[in-house]
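Example is below:
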Amino acid sequence: MSDTPRTDKASWREHQQSVVDADFARQLERELAQRTAERDALKPHDPLAEMWRELEAYQPQADREGHGESWARMCSERTKEAAEEAANCVREMSEWDAAWAVARIAKWAGDAVAAIRRAKEAKP
């Protein structure tokens, strides 16, 4: 038995390849996106993981600003020493960029600490 019965039923052969209608493919994509969103909504909220995703998302700008290597090291090692090195490099950025980066980092770090405290308090 096939693991793709709907696709098998909707497909036809054309030039020795299996083909499906574009509307059918779009419907499958919409269903997959919906199921993925439902699955992700069931996952527990992990503020530390969110903080690291936000820090990693800054990487392209860190590369443009000339401190990408230390930023990448901080995001991969996640150690105090690597964070201090990245912070020192960030200080060399323009005032506005540094303020933006620090504010964003502080927000995520604060959210992460608060969530950890709540989780510890909720445990029996």
In short: The radius of gyration is 23 Å. The mean pLDDT is 79. The chain has seven helices and two strands. The helical segments are 5-10, 22-42, 47-57, 59-65, 68-77, 80-90, 95-122.
